[in-house]
Amino acid sequence: MSRTTAPAPADRKDGATAPAEGLSHGLKQRHLSMIALGGVIGAGLFVGSGAGIAAAGPSIVIAYALSGILVMLVMRMLGEMSAANPASGSFSVHAERAFGSWAGFTSGWAFWFLLCVAVGLEGIGAAKIMTGWFPGSPEWAWVALFMVVFTVTNLAAVKNFGEFEFWFAALKVGAIVLFLGIGVLAIVGVLPGTDAPGTANLTGDGGFFPNGSEGLIVGLLASVFAYGGLETVTIAAAESEHPVQGVAKAVRTAMWRIALFYIGSMAVIVTLVPWDDKAVVEKGPYVATLDHLGISGAGEIMNVVVLVALLSAMNANIYGASRMAGSLVARGQGPKALGRLSGGVPRPAVLVSSVFGFGCVLLSYWRPADIFVWLLNTIGAIILVVWFFIAASQLVLRRRTEREAPEKLVVRMWAFPVLTWVALAGMAAIFVLMAREEGTRVQLYWTGGLTLLLAAVGFVRQRAAGRDS
User: Fold this and answer.
1) What does the CA dihedral 320, 324, 330, 334 come to, rounded to 10 degrees?
2) Can you give the pTM of this predicted structure?
3) Nearest Cα to 161, choosing from 91, 229, 236?
4) How confident is the model at residue 37, as a pLDDT?
5) What pLDDT, in 10s, does the model give residues 27-36?
6) Residues paired with residue 345 on neighbouring β-strands, in sequence order
7) What percent of the chain has pLDDT over 90?
8) Which tens digit of pLDDT belongs to each residue from 44-92?
9) 3-state secondary structure the chain
């Protein structure tokens, strides 16, 4: 049996991997490829990028390019480790293997918390779109409906999750490809009813850096968090038919395509629409661009795409949260009841993750001014914490794998260890920038507090386990 067709390994308490028992292998290569592509394309890109454009102006292209380079490095490192040791706990397992159970505990439960809160936020966003189409209908009813649908989807066989994500991602990718095609035609002046804008929007009205370096920094911070979601593909790879081959191919093909979609979209938008057009923030940059080009029904078309993006993210985050929780429990780092498998699916973990997400929605209604804001601030920088664990783990595990099993290095990090250190330095720089900006400083503090709390609990558990062994 070749190393690229071996069965997916299951997580063990020591953080190593062993032949898969329990989780099904219902995901195909087409599922993984689309999960990799679509998982990162969400409402943060379609709507949230407007705030970054308003802050950075045309230089948002540089901001997305810089953060895109960092994400490519992180995904290459994660791809290297996941291809060498596929596991449903992904980076949590790798962190445990590199630094001990405390690191796996910290990164894993922090990521689970992030995904569960994100499920609630996405449900709220999707419900707002639905109430716009059906005035008078209660938001909570739509959230409840979506939660039930995707909880049931994730309670069933993993192939159902894969099919939902495949078609959701296909629609999102198709929408961006169509947008880029229309945008390029408009830029060169061959789209009917439009004239080529030239560089007027890029160099006029304050120039390429209208708000200077401060605007670029705000745009950079906004762009970093818009890339979150790629990690799901390495979690899903453990349940694919050919884990090693699957994650290697998915990571390789997704990186340059996502860079094209993100950076290309920003370049098209700021070339066609003045960066200070209020519609960019109010309607979202994609809708503003299509409206600017006189394409009728642009708002409703993009509302459908954003709704699909939100529902896709809900589906993927329930899946990712349940698998991360299941992996942690399998390694003795959580309540055993959460790890029980039925039909190859950790159904208790699915239910708990969904209930936690729905609880966040209820808090947004009951305590919007304090507890819900606290939740939002707490998850603000978790993705950066996860990326830091990924880079630090790869620095350790790459050398260990080269010594013990070099044949497992199916995917290799470029220019190791130089680019790994470059990525770590980039993350440190972003943490410093977050501490400088008033709007992100509080998020950094709350995320840091949660991380330190989890690390302390993890250390105590690790020492207790050491004494008992």
Assistant:
1) -130
2) 0.88
3) 236
4) 67
5) 777 777 777 6
6) 342
7) 39
8) 788 778 889 999 999 999 999 999 899 889 989 998 999 898 888 889 9
9) CCCCCCCCEEECCCCCEEECCCCCCCECHHHHHHHHHHCCCCHHHHHHHHHHHHHHHHHHHHHHHHHHHHHHHHHHHHHHHHHHCCCCCCHHHHHHHHHCHHHHHHHHHHHHHHHHHHHHHHHHHHHHHHHHHCCCCCHHHHHHHHHHHHHHHHHCCHHHHHHHHHHHHHHHHHHHHHHHHHHHHHHCCCCCCCCCCCCHHHHCCCCCCCCHHHHHHHHHHHHHHHCCCCCHHHHHHHHECCHHHHHHHHHHHHHHHHHHHHHHHHHHHHHHCCCCCCHHHHCCHHHHHHHHCCCCCHHHHHHHHHHHHHHHHHHHHHHHHHHHHHHHHHCCCCCHHHHCCECCECHHHHHHHHHHHHHHHHHHHHCCCCHHHHHHHHCCCHHHHHHHHHHHHHHHHHHHHHHHCHHHCCCCCCCCCHHHHHHHHHHHHHHHHHHHCHHHHHHHHHHHHHHHHHHHHHHHHHHHHHHHC
Q: Is 90 exceeded by the pLDDT of residue 398?
A: yes
- Spatial separation of the C-alpha atoms in residues 398 and 393, rounded to whole Å: 8
Amino acid in position 30: R
Structure tokens that stand for 196 in this block: 């080529």
In this structure, what token pair is assigned to residue 345?
């699916």
Q: State the Cα–Cα distance between residues 314 and 251, nearest whole angstrom.
A: 22
